[in-house]
Predict the structure.
Amino acid sequence: MSGHTQGDPSTARRVMEAVPFGLWVTGAVSAIIVVTGMALTTVNRALSPVSSVIIAIVIALLLTALLQPLTSWLRRLGLRQGLAATLTMFAFLIGLAGVFWLTGSQIASGAQDLVDGVFDGLDSVQDWLKSEPFGISGDQVSSWIEQGREWLQSNWTSLAGGVLSAGSALSTVGVVFVIALVSTYFFLAQGRRLWLWFVRLLPRPTQQPVHDSMRRGWVAVLAYSRTQIIVAAVDAVGIGLGALLLGVPLVVPIAVLTFLMAFIPVVGAVLSGIVAVLIAFASNGWVAALIMIGVVLAVQQIESNVLQPLLMSRAVDIHPLAVILGVTVFSSVWGIMGALVSVPAMALVKVVVLSLRGHDPYPQMGSDPVPPYRESDPQDIDEPLVDETTEALERSEPTGSNDEGAVSGPPRPPSA
């Protein structure tokens, strides 16, 4: 009898009717969130032993997005994809070496002046503390300095161990850098071949949707990278020019740091501005530091009120609150690398999800049929995933969003 009661459909119906529908929905959404969080945590822990390789691949993807316009320009000159990718990498390495050499030479020539300025600044701070309303005596300040020296002496062993750990970390960074450079070359030279190899591992019904949606997502990443270069260059030139007019040393290192930190949303500009102000204070005193603060604030206002609405909002249609939350979450989980990839990752996910759900942000791209797998398939020629050019991206305007960047031209014919 009890078994009959347990299997009675009316009993299950009464139980479902007794629980409010909103509670069922809340429970289902909560279960999905919990399961998704557990899955992400498991994946993160499983991939932690190979985090260096993953970081290298992520850096390679970002470098590919930055360098692909140059490779496309070389291809339009008639060069083959492999040769164009090789010349692009050579140009990138030469430019990188030149920046390092110029930065290092300026640091070497201006380091002593900066150290002298730091000591002069400390003396001025000490004199300021002695004056009203602080009235701190010189003996107290000297006592604090002596305590700092004693702390350094007592903790020298741990500091030395930290230096050794930093040396080990530098070796890891070197390995990551080499892997990233090699991966960047292959992404530029054989991006389509590598991507199709991965796509063909998926179940056949999912291959075409994943392929088309990821091509559109990659266009969004390209548009973001190109726009961010412009924003970073404006920041670097503005703050570097202000430092040059104020007679602040290390102008090139300040400009390079500003350019690189501009790729980290929200916090990058603040950190580079603080460094510029501190160098201005250490070298030229309070007045130069206050003027440098004004220069940094002016450049950041131009970025946030002119460049961001005019350029970035068209390239990546993501709400500023979503950017702040995304940067916070990504950086808390993956550190600086997470903050660096947060915005392009969100742009990629947004476009991919919209495309998979039937809302095509770039209908002018058409469809690129995935050719069937064959050994030494002649269809898998050396070319990028998306054969984009700067002119095509500028001419193409996505529909239904403010994103910019797409590919023009007819879709590829299916392979025989």
Remarks:
- Residues 30 and 36 are 10 Å apart (CA to CA).
- The chain has a mean pLDDT of 76.
